[in-house]
Design a protein that fits this description.
The complex is a heterodimer.
Chain A (H helix, E strand, L loop, with lengths): L5 E7 L10 E7 L2 E6 L3 E10 L3 H4 L12 E11 L6 E7 L4 E6 L2 E6 L11 E2 L1 E6 L11 E7 L4 E7 L4 E8 L4 E7 L2 E6 L2 E6 L5 E6 L9 E5 L2 E6 L3 E6 L9 E2 L6 E5 L2 E5 L3 E6 L5 E6 L5 E5 L2 E5 L4 E6 L2 H10 L3 H10 L6 H21 L3 H10 L4 H5 L25 H5 L3 H18 L9 H15 L3 H7 L9 H13 L10 H11 L3 H14 L1 H4 L1 H4 L3 H5 L5 H8 L3 H14 L5 H20 L5 H17 L5 H8 L5 H10 L3 H12 L2 H11 L5 H16 L6 H13 L6 H7 L6 H44 L24 E2 L5 E2 L1 H9 L6 H7 L1
Antiparallel strand pairs in A: 1-28, 2-3, 3-4, 4-5, 6-7, 7-8, 8-9, 10-11, 11-12, 12-13, 14-15, 15-16, 16-17, 18-19, 19-20, 20-21, 22-23, 23-24, 24-25, 26-27, 27-28, 29-30
Helix pairs in contact in A: 2-3, 2-4, 3-4, 4-5, 8-9, 9-10, 9-11, 12-13, 18-19, 19-20, 20-22, 21-22, 22-23, 23-24, 23-25, 24-25, 25-26, 26-28
Chain B lengths: L6 E7 L5 H10 L11 E8 L2 E8 L9 H5 L4 E7 L3 H11 L11 E7 L32 H14 L10 H4 E3 L8 H21 L4 H17 L2
Classes of the chains: A alpha+beta, B alpha/beta.
The complex binds guanosine-5'-triphosphate and magnesium ion (MG).
Guanosine-5'-triphosphate binds next to helix 1 of chain B.
């Protein structure tokens, strides 16, 4: 059967009830159970519920088995009413300590302890009655009795107090009623052909639907405020509100229902063989319990009692939480959720929220296990699932540092994904894809709050494993991936990069990794993966250092020394890095320069030693080497010369000699070993760069000499010498060159040189003549200025004072100082004596 | 608990015309085996920001009496017939129209001819698998009810309701031919009805909270009408 919602517990063995009893009707209020018999007797019993202990202490949702409820009944009073007619109905008004008894068309009011009748309170002419559970009047000292009168087509409303009864209303009905229930002003009546809702206040009568009450026993059961459940055609249990509207689909009973009861969220119905249980919430049948010879099924203050003519049983509801758990364990998520929602009003709010959240999460995992990801996601989301619960299903995804422990009791029965999918790899990958999309969706939302590291690390691992294109975006973006844990990731990741890089969707994957590491501020991470990257590609890998911003390089962790020492295993990378330091960053440190030069040298020699070596690569390397040798002045020249000796790297040797200013040796190599005249010429040019013209001329002359004095006569040298002269007439001192030239050279041959030299000389001559002229002119200008000063007339008057003694002149005699000041003659002689006065005039002049 | 529906739409029509199938097609997007409906069934549909309850009633004679209650306060009633059965159209007028007296005053009516796929003039989305039509199962049948018949019925309904034709939606807009089997026109049907019903909700809400007060007013008005039987 689908759900265990109720358990049938016997409340009265035959031994508890009087022998031969014929139960006609029941009432139960608190512990008091009243039985009305067919022979006019009322029995009072105490019905005490005893709970088994073990269930009570278990935490929420953990009731492992049914609570062990049992009942003990003990007999109290009994009373025989006057007539030996059946007791038709019994109702307790516990607030008034009264019992209402319908027997022989009369309602008597009895004291509920003594069963003594209250005098003067009989209501006669009654076919049937009910207590209004939701009376409009809220007088606590009275109850509202609604009854069908034996007067034709009449219903009456009475107010019943402790000592008196009083008619409130009498309303005519369109047909003879035979059964009723009440709520507020509304009476739900079964008339002979239909059900109606009668508002006894206004008299308005609302049709519900036809029902042949004369042939078939009608049932009217108040369900909740303003809603009734009625036996309808075809064995239906119909819901109807006082407005005459049906808000729920009908439940399907059998054709011959005897009674119905409500125990939220269920309606129960009794027929000849079964008690069936339907949910009010989804109208589906949930349980059926075999029960024969039942005559009464009623609920009393929430307790459902079923009775045969001589036995009484209680339908004990299982705790809702237990029912929900049962549904969940049967994977019936929908129903469990409906029931859980429906349980809201039966469970205290705080407790409900905790319970409901947990149920949603469990439901989520059930959907998840069925690969219903959309539904699962929604449930996880609404229940604010700790996302690590989900991640933890996937082996190894949570970072090892994560202190996460699954909640207890567990939300699901699965150890991990493999168990959940039973090893079905297709399912596993579906689950992984789901998690991937889910995590990427939530990683920047509050769902991930606090678990950023767990989420990002898990996502990273998933991406890495799936070779997902978003991996790099994640890495490059602001992420909280846990570094230390990425070993596992790395393993997988390597696999990808090393393996099928070609069929990867992102062929530049590796570059991305490098890029990421380059911009990573995380020193530890960088150092951890440097080796792997370099093993993969030194050329690209070294960019981690070369493209790193300089500020960072200056930090301890990325200082060049550390990097250099780390790179020593990777020759290529080291070379590139040093090249970067020396040539680009212009770091002026001898050890880098020398180290780089040595590396070049070794690499060149290594390449040369390989026959198959690539020429362009070698050439390229040599050019870079030479560039270094030329540009840098820091490396240890002698050390290199030593190393290079005996190799055929003449050009480099020449450059090194040049560095030592051993130009004749250098040129000798260039001219006689290499016969590279262009190189020799450019040697002269770059070696004299920044030096005076004389130095350059000396170099060129050396070169010329080396052309002209071959150990073996060589025509090409002659041609080179002529070309050199003819192409660079300016670089030579023609007069001294002419001595060097062989006699037999014709003027014709050297005419470009000679005319060039001539022009140069004439030019030089003219330039110097111009300079002389200009200097002379300048000199004349100065002389003129001097004369201008000297030739000013000196006017002597009484107002004029001697510049030295500041006294007027007494006689027409004065001396004139070179600066134009006039003084007494004796002052002038004084001044000559004391040369320190020399500056005094200029001082006083300022005043 | 259950979301309170804002508005009610009811499907009425003889048994076997395909009411349940239409709803299945619309709600579950599929055509599946049905059993003749017992009593009634109930669906909730979220449409825009509103909750619409849709009632599938039972066409069987036995449950005919429940119809009035299901129609009470309905805002739209979808009267369904089977295009291959003239009788099913006639039943709408004879048996079902009277049940709609309890519907809301401004209730909309739609007349729907289902099973259009069975008829010879339908050549749409082809159906291939085995089927269980009421008539011969291999070849198509002659259409028994034409759209004009439905339109004529719609106009008679408006007359019966004493609605001025100018105020009611045009008959052509309210008569549909559908196939629950192929899905033909099914979405169009429900969505047009929902779209037309929404202004009614808005109006109802603007008139203040309805619930009990308004209902009792309404019912006192109708008292004379219902009380006579
Ligand atoms: N060919 C065809 N068959 C249909 C179509 N709609 C329904 N049917 C069939 O008609 C039969 C009755 O369909 P239901 O949907 O149960 O009819 P109903 O109106 O709900 O019947 P009741 O519940 O008894 O009132 C079923 O066998 C359906 O398969 C349709 O559009 N085309
Ligand atoms: Mg149906």
């Amino acid at each position: 059967m689908s759900v265990q919602a109720f358990r049938l517990v016997c409340a009265s063995g035959k031994e508890h009830l009087p022998a031969g009893i014929q139960i006609e009707c029941l009432e139960c209020s608190g512990h008091d159970l009243y039985i009305g018999t067919s022979d006019g007797c009322i029995h009072h019993l105490l019905l005490v519920e005893e709970n088994g202990t073990e269930s009570a202490e278990l935490p929420l949702g953990q009731q492992l088995d049914y609570p062990n409820t049992s009942f003990t009944t003990t007999r109290q009073n009994q009373r025989q009413l006057g007539v030996k007619k059946p007791i038709c109905e019994l109702r307790a008004a516990s607030a008034l300590s009264r019992l209402l008894v319908l027997c022989d068309n009369t309602i008597s009011l009895l004291c509920s302890d003594s069963f003594e009748p209250v005098p003067g309170t009989k209501i006669r002419g009654v076919l049937s009655f009910t207590l209004n559970e939701n009376p409009v009047s809220d007088d606590p000292f009275s109850v509202e009795v609604c009854l069908i009168s034996s007067k034709r087509r009449t219903v009456q409303i009475f107010s019943v107090g402790q000592e008196r009864v009083q008619i409130v209303r009498e309303v005519a009905t369109p047909e003879q009623p035979c059964s009723l229930a009440a709520d507020g002003y509304y009476l739900c009546l079964a008339l002979s052909s239909r059900y109606v809702i009668l508002n006894y206040n206004t008299g308005h009568c609302q049709d519900l639907f036809p029902y042949p009450s004369e042939q078939k026993r009608p049932i009217i059961k108040r369900i909740s405020r303003q809603e009734f459940l009625l036996a309808g055609p075809g064995g239906l249990g119909m819901f109807a509100t006082v407005a005459g509207i049906s808000q729920r689909a009908p439940v399907h009973w059998s054709e011959n229902v005897i009674g119905a009861a409500v125990s939220f969220p269920y309606v129960l119905a009794l027929d000849e063989e079964f008690i069936t249980v339907h949910s009010i919430l989804d109208q589906q049948q949930k349980q059926s319990l075999p029960f024969k010879e039942g005559v009464i099924l009623q609920d009393f203050e929430g307790r459902v009692i079923v009775a045969t003519t001589n036995g009484i049983y209680v339908l004990v509801p299982l705790p809702l939480e237990k029912q929900i758990q049962d549904l969940l364990s049967n994977q019936r998520v929908e129903e469990a959720l409906v029931l859980a929602k429906g349980a809201r009003r039966n469970i205290p709010k705080e407790r409900f929220q905790v319970m409901y959240r947990r149920i949603l999460q469990q439901a989520g995992f059930i959907q998840f296990a069925q690969l219903q990801f959309l539904e699962a996601k929604e449930l996880f989301r609404t229940s604010h699932l700790d996302i690590r619960e989900l991640i933890s299903l996937y082996p190894l995804l949570l970072p090892s540092s994560s202190g996460f422990i699954r909640t207890h009791p567990p939300l699901h029965e699965y150890a991990d994904l493999n168990q959940l999918t039973r090893g079905d790899q297709e399912k596993v990958s579906k689950c992984k894809r789901f998690l991937m999309s889910y995590l990427s969706e939530i990683r920047s939302t509050e769902v991930a709050n606090g678990y950023q590291q767990d989420v990002d690390t898990a996502l990273l691992k998933l991406y890495a494993e799936a070779n997902h294109e978003s991996l790099l975006d994640l890495l490059v973006s602001d992420n909280a991936c846990e570094v230390g844990d990425s070993a596992a990731w790395l393993e997988k990741h390597k696999k990808i990069v090393n393996g099928d890089l070609e069929d990867n969707t992102r062929p530049d994957l590796f570059e991305y990794v490098v890029d990421f590491l380059t911009f990573s501020k995380d020193q530890q991470l960088v150092w951890q993966y440097v080796d792997w990257v370099l093993q993969k590609s030194e050329q690209i890998g070294v960019q981690i250092f070369t493209k790193r911003s300089l500020d960072e390089q200056l930090q301890n962790s990325f200082c060049p020394d550390k990097i250099v020492s780390h790179l020593c295993k990777y020759r290529q990378a080291l070379l590139l890095f040093l090249e970067h330091l020396v040539m680009e960053k212009m770091i002026q440190k001898e050890k880098y320069h020398t180290h780089l030069a040595v590396l070049y040298l070794e690499e060149i020699l290594r390449l040369k030693s390989m026959d198959s070596s690539d020429h362009t690569e070698l050439e390229d390397l040599r050019l870079r080497f030479q560039k270094l040798l030329r540009q840098s002045d820091l490396y240890r020249v002698l050390f290199l010369i030593d190393k290079i000796k005996g190799t055929d790297m003449h050009m480099e040797q020449a450059i090194l000699h040049g560095k030592l200013e051993e130009h004749d040796q250098a040129l000798d190599i260039l001219v006689h070993h290499l016969k590279d005249f262009a190189a020799a010429e450019s040697y002269c040019v770059w070696n004299s760069e920044g030096r005076e013209a004389f130095y350059r001329k000396r170099l060129f002359q050396l070169l010329l000499s080396s052309y002209l004095n071959p150990s073996t006569p060589d025509n090409t040298l002659i041609v080179a010498a002529v070309d050199l002269l003819n192409n660079h007439p300016k670089e030579f001192d023609a007069a001294s060159v002419l001595h060097l030239l062989p006699e037999e050279w014709s003027v014709q041959l050297l005419s470009p040189f000679l005319s060039g030299a001539m022009r140069e000389h004439v030019h030089a001559l003219r330039v110097s003549q111009m300079a002389v002229g200009l200097a002379k002119a300048e000199n004349i200008i100065y002389k003129k200025e001097k004369l201008n000063m000297k030739e000013k007339p000196v006017v002597l008057s009484e107002k004029k004072l001697c510049h030295v003694c500041r006294k007027p002149f007494g006689e027409p005699v004065f001396a004139r100082l070179p600066n134009g000041h006039i003084v007494h003659t004796y002052c002038a002689t004084n001044q000559h004596v004391n040369s320190s006065i020399d500056h005094v005039p200029s001082q006083s002049k300022r005043t | 608990m259950i979301k309170k529906p804002d508005v009610k739409v009811v499907l009425l029509g003889d048994m076997n015309v395909g009411k349940t199938s239409l709803l299945h097609r619309y709600m579950d997007r599929k055509f599946q085996d049905t059993v003749s409906t017992v009593g009634g069934a109930f669906y909730l549909k979220q449409w825009r920001s509103y909750n619409i309850s849709i009632w599938d009633t039972a066409g069987r004679e036995q449950f005919h009496g429940l119809g009035s209650m299901y129609c009470r306060s309905a805002s739209a009633i979808i009267l369904t017939y089977d295009v291959s059965s003239k009788q099913s159209l006639m039943e709408l007028e004879d048996r079902f129209l009277g049940l709609t007296d309890t519907a809301s005053e401004d209730c909309l009516f739609a007349v729907v001819g289902n099973k259009i796929d069975l008829t010879d003039d339908y050549e749409g989305e082809e159906e291939s698998e085995g089927e269980r039509p009421r008539t011969c199962s291999t070849s198509k049948v002659r259409k028994q009810v034409y759209l004009e018949d439905a339109i004529a019925l719609y106009k008679r309904i408006m007359k019966y309701k004493m609605v001025d034709e100018n105020h009611a939606p045009a008959a052509e807009k309210m008569c549909f031919e559908t196939s629950a089997k192929t899905g033909h026109n099914v979405d169009v049907l429900f969505e047009s009805v929902f779209n037309m019903v929404i202004p009614l909700i808005v109006k109802k809400k603007a008139n203040g909270p309805e619930d009990t007060i308004n209902l009792s007013q309404e019912s006192t008005e109708k008292h004379t009408k219902t009380g006579c039987c």
